[in-house]
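EI: anyone free to look at a 116-residue chain?
SC: sure, send it
EI:
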Amino acid sequence: MSHFSTLRTKITDAEILKSSLCDLGVTVKTEDNIRGYNGQNVRADIVAVLEGDYDIGWSRNADGSFDLIADLWGVAKKHNQTELINSINQKYAVNKTLAEVKRPGLQNANVRLVLQ
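SC: here you go
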């Protein structure tokens, strides 16, 4: 019986996800296994290697978005999973926004980013 949960996300940019994880001090692997309960593992496109015996991963869907995959019970043994996932999503959103405003054609745009 698998302990892995799959959650839909709005994440679509693999490079920004990887750089966001690195910004948070998380080791990132690509095309690797997510560690779960009792040695179980699942393959993912991007893996955040966490302290302890459990990881979080993301797998790309046909529509280009990523699903988050993790043994959430196991992750919660060493991490506040809500805070961890929220911090990853927040860092991704900031990095994605900054990347978008650097696109050609937006150099003269006035952008104000307010973080709360």
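EI: The mean pLDDT is 91.
SC: 👍
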